[in-house]
Each structure stands twice: as structure tokens, then as C-alpha cells.
């Protein structure tokens, strides 16, 4: 059974930091591109950061470049999103996604709430 379980969300003041984790099971984690998406109230879900299988190449949305860092630990089947210098506009539900387009596989976690507010 495939599972993606996010943790680490919460309430933080502007300028603060959070580290999100996503623990994966039920599939070969190292073969998948891992992504973090977010969805704010009234807005579409957007891709925040990606880390590719094999090379660990990363991509970021322009809005988070220089503030967010995605990383993965294939031995622990876990992907992380380190977020610093958080802004109120980063407030959203953050979702973990595992993707392997070549074989049409796409898995989602249940999401974790991040609220940036004073």
C-alpha cells in the first residue's frame, strides 16, 4: 500500500523557519521524482520544489528560490523541505507528491498546514 505521510507543519511568525518531512512507503522511493506542492485558500495548487531521482537535481518556483531547500534521503525513504525566511504568502497546505511519468505513477500525501502569521 502506497503511503506518503507529511509532518512538520504548524504556525510560525514571519521570518521564521520550518522543516517539512514526507515519509514514503509502498513503492521504490529512489526511482521517483519527489515534489512539494502547496495550495492556499482560493488558489490553485502550485509546484514549489522538485528533486529528481538519480542525480538529485532540484527545481524551485521563483517565489521560493533562495528560501526553500528540497532534499531527499533514499535510505530513509524521506523527502524534506527546509523553509526559511517565511512570509505570510507562504501560508498554505503543503503536499508531498511522488511522480514517475514514464510509467504513469503519481502519488499524493494528505497535506500539512503551514501558517505564517504574527
List keywords for this structure.
11 strands; 118 residues; single chain; 7-stranded mixed beta sheet; 53% strand; 4-stranded antiparallel beta sheet; mainly beta
Q: Structural class, please?
A: mainly beta
The major pleated sheet works out as: 7 strands, mixed
Give me the strand/helix succession.
EEEEEEEEEEE
Record field, number of beta strands: 11
Distance between the termini: 40 Å
Integer-rounded radius of gyration? 14 Å
Determine the number of helices (DSSP H or I, runs of at least 4 residues): 0
The overall pLDDT, averaged over residues, is 96
Shape, principal axes of CA atoms:
globular
Low-confidence stretches: none
Helix content: under 10%
Proportion of strand residues: over 45%
Q: Can you offer a commentary on this structure?
A:
With 118 residues, the protein is mostly beta strands. The protein has strands spanning 3-7, 10-12, 18-25, 33-39, 46-51, 58-60, 68-73, 78-83, 92-100, 105-108, 112-116. The strands form two sheets. Strands 2, 4, 5, 6, 9, 10 and 11 form a seven-stranded mixed β-sheet that branches. Strands 1-3-8-7 form a four-stranded antiparallel β-sheet, with no helix packed on it. Strand 4 (33-39) and strand 5 form a beta hairpin. It is globular.
Amino acid at each position: 500500500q502506497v503511503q506518503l505521510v507529511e509532518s512538520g507543519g504548524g504556525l510560525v511568525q514571519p521570518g521564521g523557519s520550518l522543516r517539512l518531512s514526507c515519509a514514503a512507503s509502498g513503492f521504490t522511493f529512489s526511482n521517483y521524482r519527489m515534489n512539494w506542492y502547496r495550495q492556499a485558500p482560493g488558489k490553485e495548487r502550485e509546484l514549489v520544489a522538485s528533486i529528481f531521482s538519480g542525480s538529485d537535481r532540484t527545481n524551485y518556483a521563483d517565489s521560493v528560490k533562495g528560501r526553500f531547500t528540497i532534499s531527499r534521503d533514499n535510505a530513509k525513504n524521506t523527502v524534506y523541505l527546509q523553509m526559511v525566511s517565511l512570509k505570510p504568502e507562504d501560508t498554505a497546505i503543503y503536499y508531498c507528491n511522488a511522480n514517475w511519468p514514464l510509467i504513469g505513477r503519481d502519488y499524493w500525501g494528505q497535506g500539512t498546514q503551514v501558517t505564517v502569521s504574527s
